[in-house]
Structure formats: structure tokens, C-alpha cells
């Protein structure tokens, strides 16, 4: 498909918003086999698969407290300072998501409220391959701790030397996490879902990963294990008008494309000249980037689109429902009113997507593959159950009792009606 599209009609949009798909024959069958083996053989299966896929089988899956503390010594001061800044900002943003209990009197004698109860056991999968994502540990563990989760279990692949990435362990140390296990891929998801001798079974699994991890999360969720989302390849859409800074937009597109060959970037502008200027800046910046080869593969999936009318441009972007959306314009806040579907939005010329990935405070665990139409990113709410309560006194049952009887009778549920009728009769003369 031509990657430069001029004023596409809405009938073309369905094809333009398709995500890239990596063909993986027998993926589900392979992953199901891994899951079943872990269910049967536990720790040994996790170790064997680690040897098969990662080239190392740990003697002990658990990362000791000494290993966690020792990792801090190898982290330079500048990185430590950066991590603490990110930690503080993420904590500030997520602490404001705590919902206070509010008791509501719906009618005299009837009081209702909702209370957030933390999920007790949560599993966090932290990728540790070519780009160990210690930032993801910040993004997942901080809201889990704010929510009050009792047991936070972390799995992450060991490196070739058999050790977990030092920055991941440093983050674990400053957050007081001590249940860290060496395990990656589908086998780690299976261990979290069903438990092993060493790794505790959890109630909900969080975290991104490759196609094997995503497939494993899909399969265990079908077996009743809760998950955060099915995270696909990373994606970015940029809306840029005449007030954008082409150099900045080019940098944003390149930064997203370096995630992987299946990542996708989409640029929507109001005229062709803007695209030409941005492409020129891409050619200037690309040669110096260390992940140049990955970016070039990813750019095969790019879409550069001219849509002259603002509202129509955002209608297209809402159809695409991107994980990340940058509005590169001096009137970004005004244009933001058009946004209906997006995981996270970055407003103005000084708001790079990288800020959300690391240190602005918002969460970078976001819906992909168009699921931003109906789903939000990870938040404190992701780590709690919201339980409703109601208390009804004598006056309350009198006020709503007749309505309940009539509705239950209309639905043919006599026992439901009786549960109210018997109370109405008893409550006339007795105290409760």
C-alpha cells in the first residue's frame, strides 16, 4: 500500500487503520503446550524453557534480597536521580486516583455506597529482552502499591549471564518489592496463572510482552485468570498542522518506530508540505540512531496521510483509536476536544510521547490495536475491585418495597417478591 495518502474517503479508512500482523504459524498450539507443561512440571518446566529460549537455566528462580540490593551499586547517580523523579511523578498522578467512599441516600431509609478493595495477589510481567523495561516496573508496581495489593509478584527474564537487569532490580529495591522471579515468555505467564512450588498463583496478571506472552495471557484469561489487557505492538498517531515543529514530529515518529519491526506510526496532517518537511527531518535524524534497522522495518508499516479538514482528520484518528496520540499544534488543547478514542494524548509541541513512557506521571501501559475505543490504560482502578453496599432500614423498605414487589411480579419471580413482602409485614410491628 502507498504510504502517502491524500484525502482518503471514509470508505478507505478501514484499510488504513489496519495494524501490521506478524505471521506466526502454530503460535497458539505452541503456547498452549508450554502452559500445560508448566502446569504439570512447575519450576522445572520454567527452568527448562528458560534454557531453551533464553540460553540460561537458573538454579533458583527467586531473586534474593542480597541480589536486589547489590544491583543498586552498578546504577550510576544520574540514572538513579532520573528514576526517582519518574517514581515521584508517577506516584503523584496515581495517588489522586484513589476513590473516597461516598454514602448516597437514594431515598429516605436507603443508603448505598461503593468501596474499592485491592486485589490481593497480582503478577507483574516485566520484559527483559533487547530493551529491559524497568520503567514498566514503575508503571505497574506503583499503582499496585497505592491500591494496597498484598502480594506483588514480579517475573522477568534473566540476561545471558543469569542475572536480572540491574535497573529492574534497583526499581524493585526502592519500591520495596522482594518477590522477584527469573522467568520470561509464556512459561512465566503460566507460572503466574497456575502457580509453581516457588512462584505463587496470582489473581490478575499485568504487563506487556512479545506475541508468545500476549498469546499466553489470552489463553489463561480464557481459563478464568484475570489480565490487564492484550497488549499488541506499540503504536503512535500524530496530528500535525502548520504550527508544528517538523524536527520534533520526526523525532517522535522515530522514537515509536524503534520499539520493534511490528510497531506502527501514523502521521495525519492538513497539507502535503508538512509531510515533506517532516520526511526531510526523518532522513536527517535516522542515520545516527542505534536501532536504525528496526526503525526501517517498522517504517514499512507507516501511514502518512493528508486530510485537509480538522474535524475529518480527528474522525479518522478516532477510528484508528491509537495507543498514543500527539497533537503537534499551538492550539492542541482546543483540538483535544475532538479526541474520543486514544490511550494517552500528548498536547502541543513540547509534549513528546517519550514523556509518558517515562516521567510525566501518566501510565504507559495502554490499550493497543484499536481497543482504546472501549478500554483505558492501567491505573489504580486496575488493581482494585469496586464493591457496592446498601443498607435499608424500616422506612427504606417501606419506600421501595412496593416497587420491588411490582417489578418482581412482572418478571415472574415470585420468590423475589416474597423476600420483600415478608419484610414489609414483619417490619410494621417489630424492631430490627
From TrEMBL:
Substrate binds at residues 234, 256, 259, 324, 357, 411, 416. The active site is at 323 (proton acceptor), 324 (proton acceptor). Zn(2+) binds at residues 256, 259, 357, 416. It comes from Ginsengibacter hankyongi. This is Histidinol dehydrogenase. GO terms for biological process: L-histidine biosynthetic process. One of its GO terms (molecular function) is histidinol dehydrogenase activity. Binds 1 zinc ion per subunit. Pathway: Amino-acid biosynthesis; L-histidine biosynthesis; L-histidine from 5-phospho-alpha-D-ribose 1-diphosphate: step 9/9. Keywords: Amino-acid biosynthesis, Histidine biosynthesis, Metal-binding, NAD, Oxidoreductase, Zinc. NCBIfam families: hisD. NAD(+) binds at residues 125, 187, 210.
Amino acid at each position: 500500500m502507498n504510504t502517502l495518502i491524500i484525502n482518503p474517503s471514509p470508505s478507505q479508512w478501514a484499510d488504513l487503520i489496519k495494524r501490521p500482523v506478524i505471521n506466526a504459524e502454530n503460535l497458539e498450539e505452541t503456547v498452549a503446550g508450554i502452559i500445560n507443561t508448566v502446569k504439570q512440571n512447575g519450576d522445572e518446566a520454567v527452568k527448562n524453557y528458560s534454557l531453551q529460549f533464553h540460553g540460561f537455566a537458573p538454579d533458583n528462580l527467586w531473586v534474593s534480597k542480597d541480589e536486589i540490593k547489590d544491583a543498586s551499586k552498578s546504577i550510576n547517580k544520574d540514572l538513579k536521580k532520573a528514576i526517582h523523579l519518574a517514581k515521584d511523578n508517577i506516584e503523584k498522578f496515581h495517588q489522586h486516583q484513589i476513590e473516597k467512599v461516598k454514602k448516597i441516600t437514594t431515598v429516605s431509609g436507603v443508603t448505598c455506597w461503593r468501596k474499592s478493595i485491592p486485589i490481593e495477589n497480582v503478577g507483574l510481567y516485566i520484559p527483559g529482552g533487547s530493551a529491559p523495561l524497568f520503567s514498566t516496573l514503575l508503571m505497574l508496581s506503583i499503582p499496585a502499591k497505592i491500591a494496597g495489593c498484598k502480594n506483588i509478584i514480579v517475573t522477568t527474564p534473566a540476561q545471558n549471564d543469569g542475572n536480572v537487569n540491574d535497573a529492574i532490580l534497583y526499581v524493585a529495591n526502592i519500591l520495596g518489592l522482594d518477590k522477584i522471579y527469573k522467568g520470561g515468555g509464556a512459561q512465566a505467564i503460566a507460572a503466574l496463572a497456575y502457580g509453581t512450588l516457588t512462584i505463587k498463583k496470582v489473581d490478575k496478571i499485568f504487563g506487556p510482552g512479545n506475541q508468545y506472552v500476549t498469546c499466553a495471557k489470552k489463553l489463561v484469561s480464557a481459563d478464568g485468570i484475570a489480565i490487564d489487557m492484550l497488549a499488541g505492538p506499540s503504536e503512535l498517531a500524530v496530528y500535525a498542522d502548520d504550527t508544528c515543529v517538523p524536527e520534533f514530529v520526526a523525532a517522535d515518529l522515530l522514537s515509536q518506530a524503534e520499539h520493534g519491526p511490528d510497531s506502527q506510526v501514523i502521521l495525519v496532517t492538513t497539507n502535503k508540505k508538512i509531510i515533506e518537511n517532516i520526511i526531510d527531518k526523518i532522513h536527517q535524524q535516522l542515520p545516527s540512531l542505534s536501532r536504525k534497522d528496526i526503525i526501517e522495518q517498522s517504517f514499512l508499516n507507516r501511514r502518512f496521510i493528508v486530510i485537509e479538514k480538522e474535524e475529518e482528520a480527528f474522525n479518522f484518528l478516532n477510528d484508528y483509536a491509537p495507543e498514543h496520540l500527539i497533537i503537534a499544534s499551538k492550539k492542541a488543547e482546543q483540538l483535544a476536544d475532538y479526541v474520543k478514542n486514544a490511550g494517552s494524548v500528548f498536547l502541543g509541541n513540547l509534549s513528546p510521547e517519550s514523556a509518558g513512557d517515562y516521567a510525566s506521571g501518566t501510565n504507559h501501559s495502554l490499550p493497543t490495536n484499536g481497543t482504546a475505543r472501549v478500554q483505558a490504560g492501567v491505573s489504580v482502578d486496575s488493581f482494585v475491585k469496586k464493591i457496592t453496599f446498601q443498607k435499608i432500614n424500616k422506612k427504606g423498605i417501606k419506600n421501595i418495597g412496593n416497587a420491588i414487589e411490582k417489578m418482581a411480579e412482572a418478571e415472574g419471580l415470585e420468590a423475589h417478591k416474597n423476600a420483600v413482602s415478608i419484610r414489609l409485614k414483619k417490619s410494621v410491628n417489630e424492631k430490627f
